[in-house]
Amino acid sequence: MSADGLLKALHDSQRYLDVVQKPQLGKSEAEWLVETTVENFAKYYNSGFIEYRKSVAEAGDFASVEWTGRGATFRDVLGKEYIDCLGGFGVFNLGWAHPKVVGAVQAQLLKSPLPTQELLDPLRGMLAHLLAEITPGDIQYSFFVGSGTEAVEGAMKIAKLYTRKSGFIAAVRGFHGKTTGSLALTGKSIFRRPAMPLHNNIYHVPFGDADAVEQQLRIAREVGNDIAAVVMEPIQGEAGAIVPPDDFWPCLRQLCDEYEVLLIADEVQTGLGRTGQFWGVDHWKVAPDIITSAKALGGGVMPIGAFMASPKIWSVLNSNPFIHTSTTGGNPLACAAAIAAINVTLEEGLVEQAAEKGDYFIQHLQAIAARHNDIYTDITGKGLLIGQHFVNDDIGYEIAAGLFKRGVLISGTLNNSRVIRVEPPLVITKDEIDSVLNKLEDTIQALHTTIAGPGVTLVPAQDVVA
Length: 466
Description:
This protein is α/β, with parallel strands linked by helices. The protein has 17 helices and 15 strands.
């Protein structure tokens, strides 16, 4: 750091603030912003990100840089409009910049953005009360953090404090976050292996296989590997919207009671209506001991996560309220957004909308997949958490890129383009769904035209290695 560097930072920060203050940019300003954003990401954030987001770099003369949005559509800085079928991987349940959520945050911003940490901040109590009213079973207490992975970390910690055990059972291909504790639960080697060793006494079983869970619990008991909790997503999101058998969650509840371990439902992605029920576990009428939430909890406006439990389990925190703390978790701005998000979800019937629109979307995608079974292997999911499964990564990427060029934002499940997730805002309209379906058909037809040459065949599904 030098004096010249500080002067340059002062100049650059003011120029960036000027951009923030402008509701829209002229053509030359927009082009400058695109070029600056790409350069900043490549030089100062992560050059690999530009390569991974190929649709950004291949969008035309200028990369796509997001700017503003409302409902289920958004515009990039050059003014091109897109239908959002990604929803921030579950953040935008209420759509982009829902006015009630934005208004709540703006109003709170004028009073107090952050808490004193010493006095009682009212919005934290209000949000905890609301969550007690809408969570399943006897869950009553909440702790607020800034993200989903922190919520999972907190859930793991309270489970260990309450049970005085250290082990966990999770699912193969499950996703729970990338901080070290939650990463230990995540069932994907691509994320786990580079950071090994992780939290020990973690066991993974096939998702949806209750017999495998029971076998692991029985072995753990016999050899002394004390298990604190079984941790599962109600429906696996990053694995491709994988729905378990209908008896899986009821069996988990029974097994956890029998073996005296806790059941943790990771609802970071599935909660607040995404799957057509308020919580994913509501599909099977199961009440977990601990539940996590994040993503949509902030209404698409503020980051916030939460882990919640019953009074019996929460007693370990009540007896020592400083054993787990967060300086900025549960701040008034985030709580204001979450209170508004819960209100809007209930007031606008978004859970019911997700169920109805999800059925419509899935039925039409299944029909498309049946017509094009040379490239599709399956359509999975519930509500508006849907997975399109293709025969290989290349086909999946071409579908995602083709839709992007036609004004639909969609993406593979993290590093896997073989499964393309459909996860739009719950406020997406039927007309917008129909537009996405039509553009999907156009993309498939263009793909067939490109690859259908003499001697060219698609790889059949059974020959593809997962």
